[in-house]
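Why predict the complex rather than its parts? Because the way molecules touch one another can change local conformation, and only a joint prediction can capture that. The input here totals 222 residues.
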Amino acid sequence: AQRVTQPEKLLSVFKGAPVELKCNYSYSGSPELFWYVQYSRQRLQLLLRHISRESIKGFTADLNKGETSFHLKKPFAQEEDSAMYYCARFSSGTYKYIFGTGTRLKVLA
Amino acid sequence: NAGVTQTPKFRVLKTGQSMTLLCAQDMNHEYMYWYRQDPGMGLRLIHYSVGEGTTAKGEVPDGYNVSRLKKQNFLLGLESAAPSQTSVYFCASSWDKLSYEQYFGPGTRLTVT
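Output of the joint prediction:
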């Protein structure tokens, strides 16, 4: 079965420190991977998708097929980055999304 | 565009009662999804639909039913609510094979006592 694993439930960093939120996926063909973010009292929204290779709000994520990882990184964390982050994978065979269990990021002043 | 809307925003049910959650989207999306979000378990897919008139089971379908009679609406029904169904329910929709981004509704907080 396809799986998405986010090993950290909570990650606390100080403002200005680098951030890396980990995501690993089970290998199966060519994955379609995403990072979604949920700020306090807001709905889930797309942050990044791997095919676009873009930087959003200073975040980047690189697909590493050898390590089956799609870690989310930001060089300097800001307090407004505090949120719940979900890694997700789209299954083109079933049109389903598989979400990780999420990592809560807390950026401390 | 309103995007994805959910009705109601909050609801308290007693065990055994029934209710229907409504999801509506105005983006002409083909695919629609119902998730539940529980602490420590992330998002789990309940049911989904890849087009009008079609539905399929997700990861945790037991105790729920769905219907997609109109393309813009996706209904989630609880026939006999149980305390284990206390959760936050999110609806989402996505466009088609060219764009897999999911658009989420604001959520419905359901408490079953």
